[in-house]
């Protein structure tokens, strides 16, 4: 999912939407272990903030988009991505 939303973000920017920004749900899962010793991300072009980390109400945003989610999750957590285009 991450690569898909990053590709959509880049495509949006390439089509004149220079303020396009993508978010993904949950914590970063790019590396098995984060490079906390040097504090330098080894994937700076792929890492994205989670929606809730920047104040997006994921439940309300999903509801406004017609997506039904419920907490707590019955099975595996659902994953979301958000692409904002201006």
Question: Describe it for me?
Answer:
The structure is a single chain. The protein has 86 residues and is an alpha+beta fold. The protein has one domain (2-84). The chain contains 2 helices and 2 strands. The chain has a two-stranded antiparallel sheet with strand order 1-2. The longest helix is centred in the first third of the chain and has 13 residues, at 2-14. It is flat and about 40 Å long.
Radius of gyration: 14 Å
- Terminus-to-terminus distance: 22 Å
How many strands, what sense, and barrel or not for the largest sheet? 2 strands, antiparallel
Strand order, largest beta sheet: 1-2
**Count of individual helical segments:** 2
Tally the structural domains: 1
Number of strand elements: 2
Sheet/helix structural class: alpha+beta
Mean pLDDT: 87
- Overall form: flat
- In what range is the share of β-strand residues? 5-15%
Helix fraction by DSSP (H/I, runs of at least 4): 10-25%
Order of helices and strands: HEHE
Uncertain regions spanning at least 5 consecutive residues: none
